Every structure is written in C-alpha cells, then in structure tokens.
Amino acid sequence: xxxxxxxxxxxxxxxxxxxxxxxxxxxxxxxxxxxxxxxxxxxxxxxxxxxxxxxxxxxxxxxxxxxxxxxxxxxxxxx
Length: 79
What we know:
It comes from Sphingobacterium alkalisoli. This is Heavy-metal-associated domain-containing protein. A hairpin with a 6-residue loop joins β2 (40-44) and β3 (51-56). The model has no long low-confidence stretch (mean pLDDT 90). The protein has one domain (11-78): Alpha-Beta Plaits. The protein has two helices and four strands. The longest helix has 14 residues, at 22-35. 30% of the residues lie in helices and 28% in strands. By secondary structure, the protein is α+β, with helices and mostly antiparallel strands. The radius of gyration is 12 Å and the shape is globular.
C-alpha cells in the first residue's frame, strides 16, 4: 500500500524545481513527508526540470510550492 489507503482518491501533482542534489532532495522529501500525511514524494535529479512528484490523499499544490520556497528552492506546478 505504500502509506496510501486503498479506496481513496489519489492526487498526483508534478512540479518543476531547482532541487539538483541528493542532500537537498532528502531535505525536501523529509519536509513534505512530515507536513503532508500519507504521501509518496520523489525527485528526479536526472531530469532537466528536477521533477518533483507528490502523491497523496488530500493536499494542495500550493502547500508543496510553499514548502519548497521556504527552503529556498524554486517550484512551479507542471500541467
């Protein structure tokens, strides 16, 4: 189940960021995991847009963007 309960609608949002190293990626993943309940967070450091993917039951894209901005990173929702 990976922390996401079966039968619940899953939200998946994808963001362009400037998180470009493993240390910063772990910092952001930890911060988002603590803030947002029951989510999966990944950052593709090999992608030119350093894509952040967030999956969860109930969260707003604005929350994710705010967390990254507070940690000094750029973040925009990819549509």
